[in-house]
Amino acid sequence: NTPDFREQTDFHYSLHATDGAARLGEVVTPRGVIRTPAFMPVGTAGTVKGMYPEQVRELGADILLGNTYHLMLRPGAERVARLGGLHTLMRWPHPILTDSGGFQVMSLASLRKMSEKGVTFRSHIDGAYHELTPERSIEIQGLLGADIQMQLDECVRLPASQDEIARALRLSLRWAERSKKAFEAQPKGRALFGIVQGGDDAELRTESARGLIDIDFPGYSIGGLAVGEPQEVMLAMLEVVTPILPAGKPRYLMGVGTPDDLIESVARGVDMFDCVMPTRAGRHAQAFTRFGKINLKNARHAEDPRPLDETSDCPAARDYSRAYLHHLVRCDEMLGSMLLTWVNLAYYQSLMAGIRAAIAEGRFEAFKAEVKEGWARGDI
Ligand code: PRF
């Protein structure tokens, strides 16, 4: 008669160690523990493109990201629910975080119309009309069965005027309240995060963070960054926001980023990340390694028998020659995309594991310097 972990565990974050502003911790959910700082591979349409779920897990991913926008259009949230939920459907029994859809509507859909009520748009797939309100977004994320859900928000691209940024963050705060109310209908053990907006303006960022803290969420996302501003502006905004956020709750920087963005954001107190970069770049012949980025399309690899990194634990990085990878990407073979996606997710997860070990041992700054030295040295 073993106690059921799923029913007895409440969502919570525990902070284990700090090193400067960098934090080592765990986000605990009924479906499992997320070691933080964490990188979440993106599984937009119910798949981490080109990877088996078992393989993603083996690389060290504790959680995946899924998308409300894509899954509501295909195969549809109610259909996913009838099929037993997203975890069952895609055979990923570990935690899943879903984005709320607004951000993807703004980047992918056509004929978008924002109002106080929500956003209406036409599908990029068949042109059909849809409506996404804060309530419907939460209902969809519930039907998918997401362990960590996002409020509907409005993210403005930068540069933008202060008025535009202020309007969007205040609308997002009102949507945060409506999202929280709608979320009350869901089973215990799941969490809803509020999303900090406020563009590149320190005062507006502060207003957004304080407004969300007043509403009270079990975790806070930082949105509206990596949307056209220089990296130094993004990092400056993190330095404004993370000191305000409660130390006992996780902070998730949405849609970020390069390996350098990750390590610099961890240095400023961020716990969770997601980005299409390792998977998308892998499908475009780019490899991330400890020597920096390598473009396998380049003719200099055509007769290079060396692997990408003979010291890597990842077979795709350690055992396959650069010449073969070059050949595969030149021929547009799907194995080229698969191997490079594998290389990149393995690199991202090993970077996060290295970051966690360094924080635990109080040598995060030295680790950061060492990793950056490798990228700067380049591929020789
Ligand atoms: N809001 C939501 N999802 C997002 C973002 C945001 O601001 C970003 C910005 N980098 C990526 N994904 N809901």
List keywords for this structure.
380 residues; alpha/beta; 8-stranded parallel β-sheet; 3-stranded antiparallel β-sheet; 16 helices; 16 strands; globular; binds 7-deaza-7-aminomethyl-guanine
Question: What can be said about this structure in brief?
Answer:
Helices cover 42% and strands 19% of the residues.
Give structural notes.
The protein has 380 residues and is of the alpha/beta class. Helix content is 42%, strand content 19%. The chain has 16 helices and 16 strands. The strands form four sheets. Strands 4-14-13-12-11-10-6-5 form an eight-stranded parallel sheet. Strands 1-2-3 form a three-stranded antiparallel sheet. Strands 7-8-9 form a three-stranded antiparallel sheet. The termini are far apart. The model has no long low-confidence stretch (mean pLDDT 96). The structure holds 7-deaza-7-aminomethyl-guanine. Residues 99-100, 102-103, 150, 153, 155, 195, 223-227, 254-255 line the site of 7-deaza-7-aminomethyl-guanine.
Strand order of the largest sheet: 4-14-13-12-11-10-6-5
C-alpha geometry: globular
Point out poorly predicted stretches.
Answer: none
Largest sheet geometry: 8 strands, parallel
Radius of gyration, CA atoms, in whole angstroms:
21 Å
- Kindly, what is the distance between the CA atoms of the first and last residues, rounded to a whole number of angstroms? 58 Å
Number of helices: 16
| Distinct small molecules bound, one entry per kind | 7-deaza-7-aminomethyl-guanine
Count the beta strands: 16
How large is the share of residues in beta strands? 15-25%
Structural class label: alpha/beta
As a percent range, the share of helical residues equals 40-55%
Multimeric state: single chain
* Nearest-integer average pLDDT: 96
